[in-house]
Amino acid sequence: MQYLQWLLLVILWGAQTVESCPDVCKCSKMPDVEKSEVNCHKKGLQDFPSDLPPDAWILKLGEYFSSIHPKAFSGAKQLMLLNLNRLHVQCSHCNNLIRKVFLLPRLKDLLNLRFLMLGQNQIGTLKAEMFAGLRNLSDLDLPLNALTSLPSNAFKPLIALKVLDLSLNRIERISPKAFTGLRQLMFLNLDNNRSQEHTPFYVNVPHLHLAITKLTS
């Protein structure tokens, strides 16, 4: 009898684990931290997953979505790594800029987020409000986008940022105050952009490693 009770508990626990994972996504428990990794990359999703497990700390996406609910991340406030590389949002009434960046204000409640990957999204403009609330973010990856300039205070809310990857864009103009507020920045990657060596930008932080090579083609 005790064996049957134990078996029933195991089955119920397993069912709860499966139920909390979005359909077609793959969820796996991290044994050391008792948290979930949710992998929805190339899983054929048509809608943004709305039933993320509350203990999710890694989320990998990269799909075509018709819309993303404003509270899409409200149930996953423990997220520490969010991979949105090659995210495609279909929006017939939006211009290209809105289509690619309208997701970002929905991240403001992710206070535990440390790593944000936004590569290959054709993002052409950066504004400080895109990163509002991400005060604990330490790594922001924006390679292979369509950036041509960096305006003043573009990253100001990211007071804990240590790594910023802006490589493989087409950045020509950098405001002298583009990196205002990034006092903890340790690595800035501007490789393969169009910025000239004499571009007057300043990063007033010690021990910064700066990588710059010009775009050759």
TrEMBL record:
UniProt keyword terms in alphabetical order? Leucine-rich repeat, Repeat, Signal
- Which InterPro entries did the record assign? Leu-rich_rpt (IPR001611), Leu-rich_rpt_typical-subtyp (IPR003591), LRR_dom_sf (IPR032675), LRR_TM_domain-containing (IPR050541), LRRNT (IPR000372)
- Cite the Pfam families for this sequence: LRR_8, LRRNT
First and last residue of the signal peptide: 1-20
Q: Superkingdom of this entry's organism?
A: Eukaryota
* One GO cellular component term: plasma membrane
Q: What positions does the domain LRRNT occupy?
A: 20-58
Name listed for the protein in its UniProt record: Si:dkey-1j5.4
Annotated organism of origin: Seriola dumerili (Greater amberjack)
Lineage of source species? Eukaryota, Metazoa, Chordata, Craniata, Vertebrata
